[in-house]
Amino acid sequence: MKVIDSKELTQTVLAAQKGDVKALALLIETTQDRLYKFCLYLCGQRPLAQDLCQDTYIKVLEHIHKLKKPEGFMPWLLTSAKNHYFDYLRSSAQKTLPLDPDFDLSDEARSSEQTEQLLELKKALGQLSAEDRLTLLLVDLEGYSYQEAAEIQGVSENAMRSRIFRARQQLLKKIDDERNETQGSTVSQVRSLV
Amino acid sequence: MNHEADDKKAQDRSRALFAAAREERIEAPLYLQTRVLARLKTQQDQTRRLLRWRMFSLALMIFLSLASGLFLKSRQENAPFVATVDRPMAVKIELASATDLKATGIEIMLPEGVSFYSETHTSLAEERSLQLTLDPSFAGGTLPIVIRSQSHGLKEIKIRFYGSEHELISEKSLTIQFKKGDLS
């Protein structure tokens, strides 16, 4: 994947707005991994994440001339992905989708020390509502400020603060419950062995 | 205070948990870029085609409106007067255009089967055409003539305007549909 800094990204967006096809290609090339990861964490299903990515790019690049602040391309992309996902949830009459906790784990990742933590996180994320998951992804995965995340979500900053507090509490509770359950079953297994 | 401490604690724990996720390398599927660009091109082509069709349809509608308007107007303009066979009919020739053209003479030519009619000058019925000198006092007025047709059908009366050197300046025609019987 080609990496470019934010200044170059802005220049590329400006070129794409003028109809430069190479700039469009470069925009996809430099943002696709980040968008795909975001979509994958959001919906937890690889085929759906691919469709989301594709539809998001089509929508965004078709209307790129409407983007007033070229430096805001990435938040715009994520906003569009979020909208597509919520539209999908509405049309499929599902509020949440089962998240596959093993999604996209490479062999490298499976053998690393962080694998357990990742699996734990993904499993817990999958048990949250789509809104809470999105909130956590924007702030704790993407690193947006509360204000930026609020703009992407289309809510006030105060509402965002409440949401992130609630979402974190929910996530940590799920993880703690899972850990306690695992510990409990390990203890009972040891006792039965003794 | 407790709430803030809880918030900070939750924030730190959550961020620590997401640290592994941030580090995780997930690559977008191969050909995503190609697929997106191909679909984008197809959509843009479709949009352009649609736009072209809309422009064409609009142009066609404008053309048809104009053409039908002109056609109706010309039909109205060319709609012949209707008169009865063997009954004298008064025709007023407008001389406004003759004044504009600075015409000094006018010639009225009748088609086959149509003759001039005058109760006092019966010999006029023998003439096929009538030449008159235009008096400046006629300016903007009308020249009345009376004609009569012995046969039915569409008849065209030709009116020619001449200049001071007897050169032809302009020619107009007046179409009259003669019908048998009573029109009312």
Describe the fold and architecture.
The complex is a heterodimer of chains A (194) and B (184). By secondary structure, chain A is mainly alpha-helical. Chain A is 75% helix and 0% strand. Chain A has nine helices and no strands. Chain A has helices at 6-17, 21-43, 46-62, 73-91, 107-111, 115-126, 130-141, 146-153, 157-193. In chain A, helix 2 runs antiparallel to helix 3 (46-62), helix 6 crosses helix 9 (157-193) and helix 7 (130-141) packs across helix 9 (157-193). Chain A is elongated and about 65 Å long. The termini of chain A are far apart. The model of chain A has no long low-confidence stretch (mean pLDDT 85). Chain B is an alpha+beta fold and 184 residues long. Chain B has two domains: 2-77; 81-179, Immunoglobulin-like (Sandwich), CATH 2.60.40. Chain B has helices at 2-23, 32-78, 96-100, and strands at residues 81-84, 89-94, 105-109, 114-116, 129-133, 142-149, 153-162, 168-179. In chain B, the strands form two sheets. Chain B has a five-stranded mixed β-sheet with strand order 1-8-7-3-5, with no helix packed on it. In chain B, a hairpin with a 5-residue loop joins strand 7 (153-162) and strand 8 (168-179). The interface between A and B is medium-sized, with 39 and 27 residues.
Brief sketch in words of this structure:
Chain A has 194 residues and is mainly alpha-helical. Chain A is built from nine helices and no strands. In chain A, α2 packs across α7 (130-141) and α6 (115-126) crosses α9.
Topology overview:
The complex is a heterodimer of chains A (194) and B (184).
Chain A lengths: L5 H12 L3 H23 L2 H17 L10 H19 L15 H5 L3 H12 L3 H12 L4 H8 L3 H37 L1
Chain B lengths: L1 H22 L8 H47 L2 E4 L4 E6 L1 H5 L4 E5 L4 E3 L12 E5 L8 E8 L3 E10 L5 E12 L5
Parallel strand pairs in B: 1-8
Antiparallel strand pairs in B: 2-6, 3-5, 3-7, 4-6, 7-8
